[in-house]
Amino acid sequence: MQDIDLTSHWAGIASLVIFVAAYLLVVFEESTHMRKSKPVMLAAGLIWVMIGIAYMGMGDTESAGLHAREIIEEYGELFLFLLVAITYVNTMEERRTFDVLRAWLIGLGLGYRQLFLLTGVLAFFLSSVLDNLTTALVIGTVVMALGRENKRFVTLGCISTVVAANAGGAFSPFGDITTLMVWQAGKLSFFEFFVLFIPSLVNWAVPAAIMFFAVPDEKPPAVTDRAKGKPGMWGVVALFAATIAVAVSFKNFLHLPPALGMMLGLGLLQMFSYWLRLTGQRRQDEEFVLDSFKEVQRVEWDTLLFFFGIIFAVGGLGVLGYLALASELLYTDLGPTTANIALGALSAIIDNIPLMFAVLTMDPALSDGQWLLITLTCGVGGSMLSIGSAAGVALMGQARGIYTFGAHLKWTWAVALGYAASIGVHMVLNAGLF
């Protein structure tokens, strides 16, 4: 398999134009009402057509196919891991796990300021296990239920939730797609990610401390909100925790892809749902019935197909030689620290997934400290704008007219201070890793 520089070839230029056009359609998804997976899947296919034609024209009939199979393997592992994780989250939602959490929080009877801190802390820790989108939607619902009478609390609570959800995913190997990609690529071991815990916490704590004094010092009206989980709720939660442990063990002890461990966990969920169905039939109680295949069907396919399109499109640009050029500019001319900080800031505008995949495809020679730095910055940089992460976009839709782009922008300076502080803390605390 050989690499050919096609950056000045017609196929390379055409591919770059196609990618930019597709990404612009992703950026303007809200106004075009076109699901983000559609343009990037089309772009990915067209880019690989260009690559195939270019390689064939140079008499190489094998290299393009070998490059493509490498990317298929990378995407396949990511796809299976996410398929199982999202299925578990869907199942916990079906068993009313998140309704129970929401009712518990509402029933605490705390003031707005205490609730502001509590929802932020919960979003931070939940996001280390769940994805930032699910976390933001769950905690965002709580914030809106608590702040029905106070829009200022809802606005500040949503900003805090977005920052906390993104920060919480940055220190866990499976807390964010980008950390999962770095872990599966073997750049960092499972436990190395946890040295980012304090820098990630600082990333949320700095803007939260600033915003705290802007939160109304009042108590929300008493609300009676009760929820009861379905039978097997805690069993599903326990199985999800066990599945994550199995995936980690597959990688660390058996040197097998963690996606295989996740699929074993899906098998356990399937057997548990069968047991619940038998129990429900015996007791004649429909509440027991759990259709695990239905929860697989509810997976957000637009997201998974978007990942496919992005990974293959960016991978194609790498085969064409563009990522080698970018790597030279960023990591040789600017230096790794400046490059990693700049890429993190860029993730406030461009989705962090293609940015991280691009870095992994460039594969610059980085120390563990630098790999941790790009993991941190790409994970939390999107918090600086409401459109910079899936969590922010989702909450803008959920709290429409209250949590807006402009409302978040007023506090971008505080979030940016947290971004800078988290980088500083990482470089001081983990200096030995650089």
What would your notes on this structure say?
The protein has one domain. Helices cover 72% and strands 0% of the residues. The two termini are 33 Å apart. By secondary structure, it is mainly α.
How large, in whole angstroms, is the Cα Rg?
Answer: 22 Å
Coarse structural class: mainly alpha
Distance between the termini: 33 Å
Could you tell me the number of beta strands? 0
Secondary structure: helix percent: over 70%
As a percent range, the share of strand residues is: under 5%
What is the total number of structural domains?
1
The helix/strand series, from N terminus to C terminus, equals: HHHHHHHHHHHHHHHHHHHHH
Quick check: average pLDDT?
A: 86
Main pleated-sheet profile: none
Count of DSSP helices?
Answer: 21
What are the salient characteristics of this protein?
21 helices, 0% strand, globular, 434 residues, mainly alpha
Give a nutshell description of this structure.
With 434 residues, this protein is an all-alpha fold.
Secondary structure blueprint with pairings:
Blueprint: H1 10-27, H2 29-32, H3 37-57, H4 63-94, H5 97-106, H6 112-127, H7 132-146, H8 151-170, H9 177-184, H10 197-212, H11 233-252, H12 258-283, H13 292-297, H14 301-320, H15 322-334, H16 336-346, H17 352-362, H18 368-380, H19 390-398, H20 405-409, H21 412-429
Helix pairs in contact: 1-3, 1-14, 3-4, 3-14, 4-11, 4-12, 4-14, 5-7, 6-7, 6-8, 6-10, 7-8, 7-19, 8-10, 8-18, 9-17, 10-21, 11-12, 14-17, 15-16, 15-17, 16-18, 17-18, 18-21
